[in-house]
Design a protein that fits this description.
Length: 118
């Protein structure tokens, strides 16, 4: 074996190694909040769309549809708020343990009603 080709360190690419989920396992809270947003959405099968709800007190909601999560967000959110609430609602959909948001950001979890189209 030619040891001249071995390197004790990874080449510097300026990027952090990607976080990867183990197939068949739930994500961790660290994964949901630390992974690049586009990667987390793709790996967890999360779709983000604008909400039709006009109530200024509602920042968004998540619907679990089989193996897919649909996060609907208020169109009035800043880029930072949209990123945060997408991650927060995804973690809620997976029922991951986390500190509740302070008032006025109460989160209500309710089951989808039988016979009501989503």
């Amino acid at each position: 074996m030619d040891t001249a080709q071995l390197s004790p360190t990874l080449p510097s690419s300026g990027q952090q190694p990607a976080l990867r989920l183990v197939p068949g396992r739930r994500p961790t809270i660290d994964y949901v909040f630390d992974a690049p947003l586009a990667e987390m959405l793709a790996e967890l099968n999360v779709e983000v769309a604008p909400s039709e709800i006009a109530d200024a007190a509602v920042f968004g909601y998540a619907e679990v549809r089989g193996s897919r999560i649909v996060v609907k967000l208020s169109p009035n959110l800043s880029e930072f708020e949209a990123d945060f609430f997408t991650r927060y609602l995804t973690a809620q959909a997976y029922r991951l343990e986390m500190t509740p948001l302070p008032t006025p950001f109460d989160v209500e979890i309710s089951p989808q009603l039988e016979g009501v189209p989503a």
